[in-house]
């Protein structure tokens, strides 16, 4: 099929959505399909025409609310052609409750994509019946970089916006004892006004925090792979790319206890801290640095989940979704209303 993948962020923006859309395009192409990525459907006048001017035969829309316009236009101009909507963290944990556009996209979809098993709990039974879990894959850089010996390096890979709580790790590092060798290395760019200046100020005032700005994908993976720990401080995630990247690299994770991480790492994973709890994060970081047994437990638990990052698993899950579309046809029209949630 000719598959148009709509991602609301500009292409090559290095955001999570962009990374996801490019990787999914590669998986779908490996299954024999023709794939184009655009910011909207139909593509804008400044975009080159995908598929040599031929119409796409399937739409994959990343983000239910932000791609709602593309979903509506697809319904109007391509009725009878399959529509897949992928749900992000803001879709699942905010917009489905607040946005009629997000709910409209979900109702319109023939199939839904979520990024981890626990996300299914956020869907009504009718929506869950058309949902597929597709785990995000990653591959570790080769050769594997050696960890730094001068510090206990903890990587934080996130662009700066409030939902990521991007300075929580820096604030926790300020609470560590003088003997600690922990250094927080933050890679990502500021997506809100004033956050770049805050990062520069934090770097000047906090010797345990270093901001390296936006890295390309290879540089970011090498930083992650050499780190002793990866920390994720987000308030919500649909299933963060960086968690499966850490699993692929064998880097232990400390994460806020949010569904997007629990769905990937498991309920009993020992490396969770409450959202927004600076003191708990500081204690967890210190324990990982000083307690070899605890650090080993984090590492072993991540190794047990590493299969989720296998590119072949992601490819198979996409093949299963496409087979379900082909074998099951389009969804039945349930006539659901906004009151269903």
In words, what does this structure look like?
The chain has 341 residues and is an alpha/beta fold. The chain has 2 domains: 2-136 and 311-340, Glycogen Phosphorylase B (Rossmann fold); 152-309, Glycogen Phosphorylase B (Rossmann fold, 3-Layer(aba) Sandwich). Helix content is 40%, strand content 16%. The protein is built from 13 helices and 12 strands. The strands form 2 sheets. Strands 2-1-3-4-5-6 form a 6-stranded parallel beta sheet, sandwiched between helices. A 6-stranded parallel beta sheet has the order 9-8-7-10-11-12, sandwiched between helices. Strand 11, helix 10 and strand 12 (272-273) form a beta-alpha-beta unit. Helix 6 (168-174) packs across helix 11. The two termini are 33 Å apart.
List the defining traits of the structure above.
341 residues, alpha/beta, Rossmann fold, 2 domains, six-stranded parallel beta sheet, 13 helices, 40% helix, 16% strand, disordered C terminus
What is the mean predicted local confidence, pLDDT? Answer: 93
How many strand elements? 12
Radius of gyration: 21 Å
Please give the share of residues in helix: 25-40%
Strand arrangement in the largest pleated sheet: 2-1-3-4-5-6
* Fold-level CATH name of the largest domain: Rossmann fold
Oligomer: single chain
**Beta-strand percent range:** 15-25%
Straight-line distance between termini = 33 Å
Helices, by number, come to 13
- Tell me the major beta sheet: 6 strands, parallel
């Amino acid at each position: 099929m000719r598959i148009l993948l709509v991602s609301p962020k500009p292409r090559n923006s290095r955001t999570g959505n962009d990374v996801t859309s490019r990787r999914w395009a590669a998986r779908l192409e490996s299954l024999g399909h023709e794939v184009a990525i655009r910011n909207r459907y139909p593509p804008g006048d400044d975009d080159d025409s995908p598929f040599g001017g031929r119409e796409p035969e399937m739409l994959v829309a990343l983000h239910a609310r932000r791609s709602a316009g593309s979903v509506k236009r697809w319904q109007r101009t391509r009725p009878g052609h399959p529509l897949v909507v992928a749900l992000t963290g803001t879709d699942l944990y905010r917009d489905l409750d607040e946005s009629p556009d997000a709910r409209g996209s979900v109702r319109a979809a023939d199939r839904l994509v979520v990024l981890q098993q626990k996300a299914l709990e956020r869907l009504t039974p009718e929506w869950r019946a058309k949902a597929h879990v597709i785990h995000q894959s990653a591959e570790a850089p080769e050769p594997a970089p050696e960890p730094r010996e001068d510090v206990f390096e903890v990587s934080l890979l996130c662009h700066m916006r409030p939902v990521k709580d991007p300075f929580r790790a820096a604030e926790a590092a300020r609470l560590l004892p003088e003997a600690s060798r922990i250094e927080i290395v933050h890679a990502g760019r500021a997506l809100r006004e004033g956050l770049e200046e805050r990062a520069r100020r934090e770097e000047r005032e906090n010797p345990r925090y270093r901001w390296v700005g936006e890295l390309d994908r290879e540089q970011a993976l090498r930083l992650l792979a050499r780190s002793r720990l990866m920390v994720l401080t987000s308030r919500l995630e649909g299933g963060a790319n960086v968690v499966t990247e850490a699993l692929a690299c064998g880097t232990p994770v400390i994460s806020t206890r949010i569904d997007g991480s629990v769905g990937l790492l498991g309920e009993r994973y020992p490396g969770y801290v409450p959202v927004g709890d600076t003191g708990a994060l500081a204690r967890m970081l210190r324990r990982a640095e000083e307690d070899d047994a605890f650090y080993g437990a984090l590492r072993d638990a991540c190794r047990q989940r590493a299969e989720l990052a296998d590119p072949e698993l992601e490819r198979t899950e996409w093949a299963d979704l496409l087979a379900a579309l082909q074998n099951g046809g389009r969804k039945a029209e349930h006539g659901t209303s906004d009151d269903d949630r």
